User: Fold Class II aldolase/adducin family protein from Anaerotruncus colihominis.
Amino acid sequence: MRNMGDYMGDYEAKQLILEVGRRMYNKNFVAANDGNISCKVGENELWATPTGVSKGYMTEDMLVKVDLDGNILRGGTKPSSELKMHLRVYRENPQVKSVVHAHPPVATSFAIAGIPLSRAILPEAVVQLGEVPVAPYAAPGTQEVPDSIAPFCKTHNGVLLANHGALTWGKDPMQAYFRMESLEYYALVTMYTGSIIGQANELSCEQIDQLVDTRTRLGISTGGRPACQNVGRDGVPACVEQKRCGGQCAHGGQQPAGTAAGVEMEDIVDIVRQVMARAKR
Ligand SMILES: [Zn+2]
Assistant:
């Protein structure tokens, strides 16, 4: 099992990048040649996807190895100008080993609307992803883009990029990609419940506290804390009614970073079920 400080080898990193590229293209998270993926293989080196290529049909020889300043070390292709975002995440948070950028349609719509994904409606989203803030708009390719995401790299697992798309990160390409999947699913359910069904029963402050405790026990220390809004028909949030949250209900609370080694998705789902069952009693 890989420790937090260990890096995967070139071969494994490249294979996972190709796999994530296929998945995100097939999931309709990117159109044409959009999106990019990177994975660190050392303190100052990483593999990244090239510009101008569909991420669903990449081969190993298309990938390019760069250092944390973006200088090309190996490979004959050019990385995307969006690589600057990846490099900034690695600089801000050395625990991050992989970054994924895509334009999933529902999450991108929230990014265009400037609405963060911060409602506590799905236990898995609270534990695995946390809240997802919106980084302010910056013109593509400029230094303002990495600057806009910098404040979230240590505290969150992903951000929406205003009028652009989404960026997620993690300890390896699969975790970073799964966070992108969770983010799009979270956005989809938020849209269904908010705009189509028009009703969402949000988790209570107590339920959120339990989920955040679970997450901390799993060693996941990033993700922020969704707000306990649970607003009743009288317009009063549940945490105000319960008078138990104090100042803790505001979102943006920082949690420590990383994921416990060896914790599988099934374990997390099981723990979440237990927490929910307890909360219902
Ligand atoms: Zn993009």
